[in-house]
Amino acid sequence: MAVVTIKDIAKAAGVSPSTVSRVVSNHPRISKETSRKVKRIMEEMGYHPNVMAKSLVSKTTQTLAILLPRPAEELFKDFFFGELMRGILAHSTRAGYDMMLAAATSPQDEDDTISRLVFGRRVDGIILLSSRVDDPLIERLDKHKFPTVLIGRSEGQPHILSVDNDNVKAAYDATHHLIIQGHERIGFVSGLPNLTVSLDRMEGYRKAMNEAGLSVRPEWIVEGEFLQHSGYRAMSFMMSLPEKPSGLVVIDDVVGFGVLHGLTELGYTVPEDISLVSFNNIALSELATPPISSIDIGTYQLGYTASQMLIRRIQAETIHQNRVIIPHRLIVRDSSVHSISKRNS
Amino acid sequence: MAVVTIKDIAKAAGVSPSTVSRVVSNHPRISKETSRKVKRIMEEMGYHPNVMAKSLVSKTTQTLAILLPRPAEELFKDFFFGELMRGILAHSTRAGYDMMLAAATSPQDEDDTISRLVFGRRVDGIILLSSRVDDPLIERLDKHKFPTVLIGRSEGQPHILSVDNDNVKAAYDATHHLIIQGHERIGFVSGLPNLTVSLDRMEGYRKAMNEAGLSVRPEWIVEGEFLQHSGYRAMSFMMSLPEKPSGLVVIDDVVGFGVLHGLTELGYTVPEDISLVSFNNIALSELATPPISSIDIGTYQLGYTASQMLIRRIQAETIHQNRVIIPHRLIVRDSSVHSISKRNS
DNA sequence: CTGAAAGCGCTTACAG
DNA sequence: CTGAAAGCGCTTACAG
């Protein structure tokens, strides 16, 4: 590729590089005539401004980064992630920002990545996915006042920008839904215990159970990862108990798929034997057999809003709320309700 | 954030900026002592090299871009994409490259994005997803000899680097599998006709049908998008025909989910009434009811290999094959086989 | 309305 | 082993 610089254009147009630069940035005090001529020459010679050089002087990169949580490998297996990306990209593209995807394989690696991207001034802001309890990273970014938006929540840094759901309430609603269907033995298939989302949903589950005066057996609570695999395992464990739950709240639809598959395989019927509600409402939940009841957490909105807040912050606009809660709603499907007429049974 | 530059370090260490630069890049002819001292001071002052400045002089960015096909919005709805990204990121991260995600909303926008990223020298190479027939973009990149890898194939530029499946053979295999199960009326639910993957799979389908002496009715071929929605629509159309197919080859698992759901809803049984094979083998395919037979196209490998080829190309290493074909294999599940004992029927 | 000059933060022959 | 100088491609006060 031939590299055409601003100097080449200047020479060809018989003006100074300063003038070319002003034409490129549509500076107001440039004569129409000069502007037209320079633009024509840029076109002819195939000029494209060097983004790096521009960044260096403007000290801005027009780029954001999404930092994938450590086990990025796993993350992508959860389909929830794609929807989140859609939301983030929709807004950032519109606002003229490029998006960088940074995967970190180890904590050490994560530190290096942050150093490179953030302190190396490669990006203007960063979106953090999946908040862990006591995440040192959040503290580090916060201390340096680097524009950051967290999807989730952080206990240590209450003033950090964040977008989240009310996960306590969401889990409460899911559990309550099973309770009013008459279930008394309700289990909870959770995610990794170091994720705030796991803690919050657990809390909502317990709260609903307590309020209803139902007891929570420790063996009805199983932790795992966000993989169908985990759902399968959790299910086989619970179904081996002398006193089995009759309803399950499951941390994620993919895990829910695993649970459902396992139950079917063991000959149980959903919802007759076991009722099921999970979270995230991924596109395939409604296509499961039976369709899975799920808490829609507004995944796309979550991403869109995160991008919006981050860009506002970068552009030093006033931000009215440091913490935005995206509303959730329970989508009731056949996996949790007997009374809905089964179409093919 | 306080900005510490190489000059600050130089001053504090009592050496020249050149020396600091050499320490940073582990230049061999720097005394152990100087190196140690400078490193200590960098640590103390919190020095991080400015990536933009480095790029400007080195003319390399250590960054790749993935250009999302135009309707990126849709793409993310297909779960296949996440797996592809996993593969791409796994390798690129390992090789020390950052990844940029570029979404283009319109053709115009796509051009601007390319100009900015490629000609603005913001990235060192680019991975193109989803090859369309006669894609002008491929030609443009190829003409400028910009390091590019295409996931898919391009008729116009046979020498461009590409990673692909043998989609003709894959569809042949899928169709043949139905044929040896005794099906004679087999339909094909395709994707958008401007994608090479749609064309190739269609060809394989026709080929298998022809070889077996089976006729292909035009109404048994339906085109749509890669969404469950499309599967649903295709299915209702075909099931309204006087002569319905008894087997279906479906371009994508997500579409397959839609087909399956629709069939179940209409009271058909799979595979007894209709047998089904689709492509991509996404994680949830095996959890469908019944589990969906699918051609595993090695999605992760596809991404991994693309990244590998691109980085080799950038680093000017010898590339033995311009075009790499990732092998596929048919995963037979209950959706296409009567004889497998149904666990719960 | 336009140009000359300085500078963004780094690297790298060229000398020594 | 180390430094001074030039330069990567751009922008932006400062003059005029």
From TrEMBL, chains A, B:
HTH lacI-type domain: which residues? 4-58
User: One Pfam family from the UniProt entry?
Assistant: Peripla_BP_3
Q: Which organism is it from?
A: Paenibacillus roseus
Q: Which domain of life is it from?
A: Bacteria
Keyword set, alphabetical order = DNA-binding, Transcription, Transcription regulation
Keyword Disulfide bond listed: no
Source lineage: Bacteria, Bacillati, Bacillota, Bacilli, Bacillales
What does the record give under GO molecular function? DNA-binding transcription factor activity; transcription cis-regulatory region binding
Name of protein: LacI family DNA-binding transcriptional regulator
What InterPro entries does UniProt report for this protein, alphabetically?
HTH_LacI (IPR000843), LacI/GalR-like_sensor (IPR046335), Lambda_DNA-bd_dom_sf (IPR010982), Peripla_BP_I (IPR028082)
Work out whether the entry's keyword set contains Transcription regulation.
yes
